[in-house]
Each structure stands twice: as C-alpha cells, then as structure tokens.
Predict the structure.
Amino acid sequence: MARRVFQAVRWLLLGVTVLAIWTHPALGHASLVSAEPSRGATVTSALEEVVLTFSEPVEARVSIVKVYPLAAAPAADLAAEAAALVNRVLTKRGDEDARADAGVQAADGPNRTVRIRLKDGLEPGPYVVMWRVLSVDTHVVQGHYVFVLDPAASD
C-alpha cells in the first residue's frame, strides 16, 4: 500500500513539474513596468524623450516603438481614438513625417529600457506612445498609452 502511495505521489510531482516547465514561458512575457512620462500624465515642460521600462529585456532593434500626436478630444474619447490610431499606424512604414518621435535610441543588445527621442517643438495636446516589442523569450507584446503635453497647466 505504501508503495502505491509513493508511486502516486511521484507521478503527481512529475506531472506538476512538467506542467510548470511547459507553462513557464507563457508567464514570462515582457510587460511595461514604468514609463516617463507616465500613462495619463499631463506634462508641463518640453520633452526630449519617452522612456519605457519593461519587466524583461526587449530587442529594441527589431521592435516597433512610436509616438504620435492625437487629435484633441474629450478625455473619454482619447482611449478610443488612441486604440484606433494604434490599429492604423503601428506597423505602417514610411510614416516618419506624421510621428512625434525621431526614432529609438537602440542599445547594443537586449535591454529592459527603451528610449524614444522626440522631435523638437511638439505642439500642446495629447500624444499616444505605442509599442510592439520582441522580448528575449521570443514573445511579441504590444500596448499603448496616452499622455498630454500642456505647458499652460503649469501656470
């Protein structure tokens, strides 16, 4: 009887171990852990860059990261407008003139932090930061958020 219990426990442990190994990569996707400016922030001074920090290293050279101006809209509509814009332009090529960024400052290999240079003289208003990044575990993750540039808010 004790031998049967021992074998059952051994098979159970083996099954749990296999399941843990099999599902581990799915739990390790890179996720955005911080951003500057942050999601929903109102920025009152000129910006030179946007900084995204992920939970694990990403391959910036083969990822897509963009910053786009967003048409001014009521706050409730900004999220819907941002999502629609991301769907239209995230993978679009040759869109540099329409963007607010001047490209990614790529690191020499995988890095948790991605820096996006912004163009000089950005107009006040909402901006959407969007990304589709390849993490070192080979998973592609995408997302976006909105911040508002409003120099008058500092008065």
Summary: The longest helix spans residues 2-27. The chain is about 25% helix and 35% strand. The longest strand covers residues 49-58.
